[in-house]
Amino acid sequence: MQRVCFLLKVRPERLAEYRERHRDVWPEMREALSRTGWHNYSLFLKDDGLLVGYLETEDFEAAQKAMAQTEVNARWQAEMAPFFEGLDGRPDEGMVPLTEVFHLD
């Protein structure tokens, strides 16, 4: 299982709304993530907008490609894009995995 961690930056003026939107992620989005290989997926948000994402998957590239082909992901990414700073495209395309340097099992 591959562990993936990534960083994004939420606009400070959109933090409350971002948190609210993630209290009720669409059931079809949750199902698509699970079906396409996103497991143990978590998002952590600091008060300054730093967003840390973590997930486990067999193949991150394949999981991203599979999600990119779903209609629900296109809708979700379009709605989420305005929440982020420093992205030239969709938020799911801006997720660059960090390099793991230590893991205690």
From TrEMBL:
The organism sits in which domain of life?
Bacteria
Q: Which Pfam families does the annotation name?
A: rhaM
List the InterPro entries: Dimeric_a/b-barrel, Rham/fucose_mutarotase
Show the PANTHER family listed in the entry: L-RHAMNOSE MUTAROTASE
Q: Per its record, how is this protein called by name? A: L-rhamnose mutarotase
